[in-house]
Amino acid sequence: MSKYKNKEIGKRGEKLAISYLKKRGYRILDKNFRCKIGEIDIVAENDGQIVFVEVKT
Questions:
Q1: pLDDT per residue over 1-57, tens digit each?
Q2: Which of 11, 12, 19, 29 sits CB 3.0–4.6 Å from 43 for a disulfide?
Q3: Taking the CB of residue 26, how many other CB atoms lie within 10 A of it?
Q4: Going by CATH, does the domain composed of 3-53 fall within 2.40.50.140?
């Protein structure tokens, strides 16, 4: 599979994960958060708890 196709599939998976979280009451705080030690796909919050989500497709 091409690198472009893999990236497209990954982005679709992230969109599905965001939709899933929102339907369950989570508020999306950030997407593709980057810092010096790496990257995380989704940062969300629900009832005062912050969750970090790494999406695998």
A1: 677 788 899 999 999 999 999 999 999 999 999 999 999 999 999 999 999 999 999
A2: 29
A3: 18
A4: no
- For the chain, the structural domain boundaries read 3-53
Alpha carbon distance 6, 12 (integer Å): 10
- Predicted confidence at residue 1, as pLDDT, reads 62
The CA-CA-CA angle for residues 18, 24, 27, to 5°, reads 55
Cβ within 8 Å of residue 33, ≥6 positions away: 39, 40, 43
